[in-house]
Amino acid sequence: MTTAITSYDPAVDAPEHHHPVYDYDSGPPVDRGKFAIWVFLGTEIMFFTGLIGTYIVLRAGSPEWPNPAHRLAVGVTAFNTFVLICSSATVVAGLFAVQKDDMAGLRKWWGLSILLGAGFVGIQVYEYIHLIQHDMTPNQDLFWSTFYLMTGLHGIHVVVGVIWLAVVYVQALRGGFSSKNWVGLELAGLYWHFVDLVWVLLFTLIYLM
Amino acid sequence: MSENPPQFSVKKLWIILLALTAAEVIYGEIGNRNFYEQKLLLWGGLLIFAYFKGYYIFQYFMHMKYEGAIVKGNVWFTIPLVVYLMIMLWPDTAANDKLNYEIAHQLDPMTGDIATIIEGSRNLVNEEFRYLYDDYAATHPGAEIHGGGGN
Fold first, then answer.
1. pLDDT by residue (tens digit) across B6-18?
2. Burial of B53 (0-12, 13-18, 19+ CB in 10 A)
3. Does the residue B26 lie in any domain?
4. What is the CB neighbour count within 10 angstroms for residue A111?
5. Which of A82, A163, B8, B9 is exposed most, by the fewest CB atoms within 10 A?
6. How much is the ipTM here?
7. Do B103 and A85 touch (CB under 8 A)?
8. Are B93 and A207 inside 8 Å of each other by CB?
């Protein structure tokens, strides 16, 4: 009985009404994970567009708007922007390393990316604590409510990104990636670069303009 | 199985991004001190820096430059939606004075009048709302109340 089942070949033994067996992939000619992450990032683009668009409307419609240089520590946040850009570069360096089967390079660059990402969050928390200690809270005025809303939501994205990078890092330590299989790293990297890209815009809009 | 995308110089791109960030911060600092009121010059310059930084991250770090039509289509699909949102929001930005209630003005739920908010939701300049502060002060003895027309 067992022999009969294992030797069954649908291409030969299936009745005529059986569904045909295809030897090609009927999906789009792109990796499923990459397709999914870009759909997700498309929704994220819309999310931040709504947020930034609303900020611009509120700001342009306000009778007065304070000079951000008088309220925020631009130098500290410029350094934080530097940290985030560095983390994006190290993520790419890690991806390039695994494509060359350089697993030590992957661990080094990816670990550094996690540290830099966590550093960004740490500096932002330090900034929040400093501001709140000086009564610069969201209920004070429109400047602060929009500031906390946008930097806070971005900060949540950074935290999620750091967790994602850490999960992928553990997978890498367990030998989950190679020069033939690195899509998992690429997906985490795409999300991380998107978070970096959004910060580039937020930093300009909130801290410099 | 994964397909290797074309590789580029991470170091070179990293230096470009850091240089752009430094230049942007310096430009912003100078602009905020010397020509803060010339919004077109200040904001236009800053947005150009932000555009190029975003361009390099999007095209190279996210390697959109090397992607095919399907992935690119996923992103370009959002552009009409962004434009639509901007068109819908534009009247609120460009014609604030033509709105029934200007932005940053607050409708008083009790009288139906409009108050201008200059600094903070408690800092109403309209004297007609003085009773709001009085009510608040009566229910919160010892509370420090800011603004309210200088009484």
1. 678 999 999 999 9
2. buried
3. yes
4. 17
5. B9
6. 0.83
7. no
8. no
Residue-range definition of the domain harbouring residue B125: 105-139
Last residue of a domain, one of B26, B55, B76: B76
pLDDT at A193: 97
Bridge partner residues of B106 (DSSP): B115
Which residues in chain A are contacts of B50 at CB distance < 8 A?
200-201, 203-204
Report pLDDT digits (tens) over A150-197.
999 999 999 999 999 999 999 999 999 999 899 999 999 999 999 999
Which chain A residues are closer than 8 Å to B57 by Cβ?
88, 193, 196-197, 200
Residues B4 and A97 sit within 8 Å (Cβ to Cβ): no
Token code pair at residue A12: 């030969």
Neighbours of A147 (CB within 10 A): 22
Q: Which residues is B115 bridged to in the sheet?
A: B106
Q: Is A29 in contact with B102 (Cβ distance < 8 A)?
A: no
Whole-angstrom distance, CA of residue A105 vs CA of residue A112: 11
Q: For an interface test with B, give the residue of A48, A200, A209 to mutate (most B CBs within 10 A).
A: A200
Note whether B132 and B146 are within 8 A (CB): no
Which domains does chain A show, CATH number per domain? 36-208 (1.20.120.80)
Tally: H helices and E strands in chain A:
8, 0
Which single residue is written with the structure tokens 């939606």? B81
CB contact under 8 A, A30 and B1: no
Dist. CA A191–CA A194, nearest whole Å: 5
CB pairs under 8 A between A and B: 153
- Mutation target among A96, A177, A197, A202 for the B interface, most CBs of B within 10 A: A197
